[in-house]
Automatic annotation (TrEMBL):
One of its GO terms (molecular function) is DNA binding. Residues 113-127, 237-253 have a biased composition (Polar residues). It is found in: Nucleus. InterPro entries: WRKY_dom, WRKY_dom_sf, WRKY_plant. Pfam families: WRKY. The keyword Ribonucleoprotein does not apply. Residues 64-127, 233-254 are annotated as: Disordered. Keywords: DNA-binding, Nucleus, Transcription, Transcription regulation. Residues 136-195 form the WRKY domain. SMART domains: WRKY (SM00774). Its main location: nucleus. This is WRKY domain-containing protein.
Length: 313
DNA sequence: TGAATTTGACCGAT
DNA sequence: ATCGGTCAAATTCA
């Protein structure tokens, strides 16, 4: 998986990163059951360790991108990127006229060649992700179409980057709910073209680190694991550091990840050592904190997901 | 009232 | 002819 695209160079750094991640994985694995008893203090400690490890891993991975730079994966929220597909290769016949014959109903349509022309540039690529939260991947999308696809029970929704017009970003994706009756439902998300805008920023909430959008190739479990941890703590970020919530309500519904928690954390902006210095809470305080944090269950779930993701290391 | 979404037509590929 | 992807008018929403 992740190792498949890692270069042999800088092997020691990679080993260090793997060891770091593996260590945290073991710790989370062992202490996972205790989370339900010790609530946020332990969870935050583990999360801080996990995020630190992931940050190290990400740094190494960033340096070890394979030379035939694959498509940039958006910060996927949970789940697994399955494979990189062959690029869609829109044929751009530059001067084809293809005058659309206007119908009585709609005098529209221009030659598609002018549209496809832009897609025929260097960044054309696609990859597939399976996720339970297809609408939350850290980028801002605008829906532009929906289709019933043959052999599927659900319609497929088409999205393009919100900044297509502003920044000429050609990133698109389509979301297809799988037929399986799993709960929560699984969606296949197919991304086309990497983002060329600078608006899809992935912010590391605990470390206050920003990763530039074109960072990682597909199959980066660390990013997925990180992203899985990212959401429950969004509300802990001060407003100035939060991403603008651009997701329309209708798009948020399927993932049902509504969190209105007022979790307090002293680790939000701290450096790597913050997890060693948790404020000491007595049991009553911890219980109260847990009560006041509806997002805690979600956090616990995400920690489990993180554990699963780490298995692949 | 402007922005976002919906929806059916259009278009290229097969 | 059919299918998947996109366009853009119509509609909905904030």
């Amino acid at each position: 998986m992740a190792a498949a695209w890692c270069m042999p160079a800088a092997a020691d750094e990679r080993e260090r990163a793997v060891a770091e991640v593996a260590q945290v994985y073991e710790r989370i694995k062992i202490q996972q059951p205790l989370l339900q008893v010790h609530h946020q203090q332990l969870a935050q400690s583990l999360l801080s360790d996990a995020l630190r490890a992931l940050n190290v891993a990400l740094s190494v991975m960033k340096q070890q991108r394979p030379s035939p730079a694959p498509a940039t994966t958006p910060p996927v929220t949970s789940s697994v990127v399955v494979k990189a597909e062959s690029p869609r290769s829109p044929s751009a016949s530059a001067d084809s006229e293809a005058i659309a014959t206007p119908t009585e109903r709609r005098p529209k349509k221009r030659s598609r060649s002018s549209v496809m022309e832009g897609n025929n540039k260097t960044s054309s690529s696609s990859w597939v992700d399976f996720t339970t939260v297809p609408y939350e991947d850290g980028y801002e999308w605008r829906k532009y179409g929906e289709k019933k696809i043959n052999g599927t029970s659900y319609t497929r929704s088409y999205f393009r980057c919100t900044y297509k017009d502003d920044a000429g970003c050609l990133a698109t994706k389509h979301v297809q709910q799988k037929d399986s009756s799993s709960d929560p439902p699984v969606f296949q998300v197919t991304y086309n073209n990497k983002h060329t805008c600078n608006n899809g920023k992935l912010i590391l909430p605990f470390m206050n680190i920003k990763l530039e959008p074109p960072v990682l190739p597909p199959n980066t479990l660390a990013v997925q694991a990180y992203s899985a941890l990212h959401d429950p703590f969004d509300q802990t970020m001060p407003p100035s550091q939060q991403e603008p919530s651009s997701l329309p309500v209708s798009m948020q519904q399927p993932c049902g990840a509504a969190t209105s928690s007022t979790t307090t954390s002293s680790c939000i902006s701290g450096a790597e050592s913050c997890c060693d210095e948790f404020p000491v809470l007595d049991m009553a305080q911890m219980a109260a904190a847990a009560e006041a944090s509806p997002g805690y269950d979600l956090l616990y779930e995400e920690l489990s997901l993180l554990c699963d993701s780490f298995k692949f290391y």
